[in-house]
From TrEMBL:
InterPro entries: CheY-like_superfamily, OmpR/PhoB-type_DNA-bd, Sig_transdc_resp-reg_C-effctor, Sig_transdc_resp-reg_receiver, WalR-like, WH-like_DNA-bd_sf
Domain OmpR/PhoB-type, first and last residues per copy: 123-222
SUPFAM superfamilies, sorted: C-terminal effector domain of the bipartite response regulators, CheY-like
Keyword Transport set for record: no
Keyword Transcription: yes
Keywords noted in UniProt: DNA-binding, Transcription, Transcription regulation
Chain residues forming the annotated DNA-binding region: 123-222
Gene3D superfamilies (UniProt xref): 3.40.50.2300, Winged helix-like DNA-binding domain superfamily/Winged helix DNA-binding domain
Protein name in UniProt: Response regulator transcription factor
Length: 222
């Protein structure tokens, strides 16, 4: 999930729509609401956040260092001012990157992946047995051949790969894929997506690489 902070609701809604086309869940906040949320949100909710995008906010309304106290997710500033002084002030405030608008959503996603890779939190891809699972929106490969997947199934596989070695609950998967504030989608939809994903992986691999235990959640295995 990507969190977008901007004083203009139309902007947060616009970005949410664009990210949704890429199969990426979002949550939009006004600056005042965001400060209260980030200081009180549960750790499990913050672990679902892939990055924070900070748009037009009153100076001093958002503290990247406050975000850093709670999570290591990248903080990216979206700037409409093309001046060196403004860009330097944003970096001095603690953001990880400054992106000048207009910018394509895929460029933002590529920057997020690059920042996380440099921070040793996320590689460009993860290999699980004969699977190569990319973190930049590309379909996974099995024995070097692409496996086309619908965007939700692909994002679930990416999320499982990014948490390789530990189990994730159905709630955590849902929050990462649909966002923590999406009340229009039932959490049980995760089971349906995972069932379809397992079937496709089983057909190509000859075995089921997703281990599940009731009440404990899911994890990828060799």
């Amino acid at each position: 999930m990507i969190v977008i902070v901007d004083e203009r609701e139309l902007v947060t809604e616009g970005y949410s729509s664009l990210f949704d086309r890429e199969g990426v869940a979002t949550a939009g906040f006004a600056p005042g609401e965001f400060g209260e949320w980030v200081s009180s949100a549960a750790d499990t909710d913050l672990r679902s956040v892939r990055a924070f995008l900070i748009g037009d906010c009153r100076e001093g309304a958002i503290s990247p260092r406050q975000i850093r106290d709670r999570t290591g997710a990248p903080v990216i500033a979206l700037s409409e001012q093309h001046s060196l002084e403004h860009t330097l002030r944003l970096f001095e405030s603690g953001v990880d990157d400054v992106v000048r608008k207009p910018v394509h959503i895929r460029e933002i996603l590529a920057r997020i992946t690059a920042i996380r890779r440099r921070a040793h939190e996320e590689a460009a891809y993860t290999e699980v047995g004969s699977m190569r699972i990319f973190m930049d929106g590309r379909d996974p490969e099995i024995d070097g051949e692409p496996l086309p997947l619908p965007r939700r199934e692909r994002r679930i596989l990416e999320y499982l790969a990014s948490n390789r070695g530990r189990r994730v609950t159905k709630t955590q998967v849902f929050n990462a894929i649909y966002g923590i504030f999406d009340e229009e989608v039932e959490e049980n939809v995760v089971e349906s997506h995972i069932s379809k994903l397992r079937k496709k992986l089983r057909e190509r691999l000859g075995h089921d690489p997703i281990d599940s235990k009731r009440f404990l959640g899911y994890r990828l295995v060799f």
